[in-house]
TrEMBL record:
<dbReference type="InterPro" id="IPR013098">
    <property type="entry name" value="Ig_I-set"/>
</dbReference>
<feature type="compositionally biased region" description="Basic and acidic residues">
    <location>
        <begin position="663"/>
        <end position="673"/>
    </location>
</feature>
<feature type="domain" description="Fibronectin type-III">
    <location>
        <begin position="392"/>
        <end position="486"/>
    </location>
</feature>
<feature type="region of interest" description="Disordered">
    <location>
        <begin position="643"/>
        <end position="754"/>
    </location>
</feature>
<feature type="domain" description="Ig-like">
    <location>
        <begin position="8"/>
        <end position="100"/>
    </location>
</feature>
<dbReference type="GO" id="GO:0016020">
    <property type="term" value="C:membrane"/>
</dbReference>
<feature type="compositionally biased region" description="Low complexity">
    <location>
        <begin position="738"/>
        <end position="754"/>
    </location>
</feature>
<dbReference type="InterPro" id="IPR003961">
    <property type="entry name" value="FN3_dom"/>
</dbReference>
<dbReference type="Pfam" id="PF13927">
    <property type="entry name" value="Ig_3"/>
</dbReference>
<feature type="domain" description="Ig-like">
    <location>
        <begin position="295"/>
        <end position="382"/>
    </location>
</feature>
<feature type="compositionally biased region" description="Polar residues">
    <location>
        <begin position="643"/>
        <end position="657"/>
    </location>
</feature>
<feature type="domain" description="Ig-like">
    <location>
        <begin position="204"/>
        <end position="287"/>
    </location>
</feature>
<protein>
    <recommendedName>
        <fullName>Immunoglobulin superfamily DCC subclass member 3</fullName>
    </recommendedName>
</protein>
<keyword id="KW-0677">Repeat</keyword>
<dbReference type="GO" id="GO:0098609">
    <property type="term" value="P:cell-cell adhesion"/>
</dbReference>
<dbReference type="InterPro" id="IPR036179">
    <property type="entry name" value="Ig-like_dom_sf"/>
</dbReference>
<keyword id="KW-0472">Membrane</keyword>
Amino acid sequence: DFGHSSELAFVVEPSDDIAVQEQPLILYCQVEGIQPITITWRKNGVMILDSENAFMLANGSLYVSHFQRVRGDGSSDEGEYDCMAQNHYGLVVSRKAKIQAATMSDFHIHPQNAVVEEGGVARFQCQIHGLPEPVILWHKNSMPVNTDNERYTLLPKGVLQITGLRAEDSGIFHCVATNIANVKFSREARLTVSGSHSTVYKDPMILVGPENLTLTVHQTAVLECIATGNPRPIVSWSRLDGRPIGVEGIQVLGTGNLMISDLTVQHSGIYVCAANKPGTRVRRTAQGSLVVQAPAEFVQHPQSISRPVGTTAIFTCVAQGEPPPQITWLRNGQILETSDHIKLKNNNSTLSIYGINQADEAIYQCLAENSAGSTQASARLTVLWADGLPSPPQGVKAETVSATTIQVSWEKPLQNTKEIIGYVLHIRKAADPIEMEYQEAVSKSTFQQLVTDLEPSTSYSFYIKAYTSRGASKASEVTVVSTLGEVPAMPSLFIKVINSTTVQATWEPSIKLGQHKGFKLYYRKVHLSQYTGPVLLASNVTAYNITHLDASVVYEVKLLAYNQHGDGNSTVRFVSLRETVERTVLNPPCDCMKDEQNNKTSTTGIIIGIHIGVTCIIFCILFLMFGYRGRLLMCKNVQEQLSTPQIPRSQRSTTGLVLNGATRRDRDDRDLNGKQLDMNELERLFPASPSQEQQEKGIMSAHSPSAPHDETQISTLPLDEFSITEEQPDPLPKKPRGSSPAAPAPNHGPANEG
């Protein structure tokens, strides 16, 4: 029995009914459960006392002997009835049964006379209201219409259609309405069929289209559509949303009426009737809406549960219907009032009872109701309680540790502590509903808990329960404490070098910074201990230029965000402007004004450049010619000196010393000296400019008295000195020519000697 508690539940509930005036009425109610069970009845929420007119039968049903729509005192037996059953476990209430009196009004639409040409369409209609819905039949000439005739179509709402009219269809028509309350006859109407079938063309036309209908599932819907035209139009149906109508339960009545049997919610929609001229696209349309309602029914019933004292009980009740049903909860037959520990959520589908106690033990009912009907389901809550449970923990204290941490401490209960297996700390934001509470379990030997991951500047409530294998103690006293405020997070900092004396500090706004009043910017030379700053910046500022910097040192830049709780952690960056200065020297900036002025004299510059180039070419040619001639003369003189006999050192000329650069060995060393001259020929012709240190070393080697006489010293001459010496027409002289630049003074070494 889904949705029923085994201790007390309904087997049969009263149902909606239509009662006949002065006739007896029975409302059924049958209950099962643990005896004794007491059954009572209510009408419109008021208890019904036994009387001669209404009393309860032995099986719990209600008997109304003479149903009266209106009694002499103005009261009525119409209304909503429900049955209540109670035992020592609780009380349950049945669904509400709507009782109405059977009635029938007068006809408010009567059939009208009609004259229609042969082959046309005739339509008669009569309407009348009644409970239950009257059944309408048609009579022709005081005789029931032959429904076997395919040209005659009777629709449930009191419509008679006659197609393909013939002369024998003429006559007098009226309708008869019948239900359990009465039988009534409409006025008469005459049908006249005139002339013969016309062949004149007529556009298709819809005489009557579908009307808007609201029905309940499993009922039958008839959508009327009757059309005329010549040739006779073809009637078709479709849905406005494009979905297929389907074939199951679908039937066409007459020449175009659509009947849908055993309605479901999926049949709801807008239906379009189209009258089409055969063989063409000429058409006329009419539309009507169909709304199918479904009474409330349960998808998930609440289940009976047992829970220890102090825990949470949750009942779930899910219902569906069209329109969507409203859910109401009852506790022992009374509307359930929500409170701090009783909450309804998910459109009342979930009932949560927090921190339950013995007073919460009851039968809880879920009532689902909409315009198509109602239903109910019940479940029982059993609260488990054991003797000897611990008393509540004592001395609960909460101390703030940081912006996200609180330390909670307590003392053991005063009574029944031997069976304690642990404690449970209940945590909740003070501003949140109780269902947002969460718990942390703690061992029995622990009397403090560090609660982390809390929100800054937020109040939290705490209480403790001691648990045993048989249940939990009552809750301790609740303590409320707030976390500290939190300083902002570290900002993201970027440094951009603008020029040799300026850098730009930029940072990104972020929600991670939290609430902050602004930023503080510091900077310093890295070798100094003192910062420049702080530079206070507003919270919406994201960049700052630091100017007048020294390009030769490295700077440290520091940025932090601050709020009313203090300064946050800083972000540090280091920056050097040296590379920027070097790039500026290597790549000087463009002087556009100067370039513009230079452009004006570009023609003159080109001419001067050509002259300079030609001059350089001429000098290069002369240089090569003299250099080649000087090389030939030098080689000739060397060969003559090598063939000259030995003479004493004192008689040697200075020029010869300079050319040879050292004292010659005996005759056997001539070849070696000659080879060394050949190998260093290019060096003697085009000497490199030696450093000052090399020149001084060369002088010492040539004139040091301690130098051995057999060591070969090689000297070089500048090209200009050598060329001047070789331009003399005479052969190598036997005595020095002091006037020659190639023979320096004895106290001076050669300038380019290596």
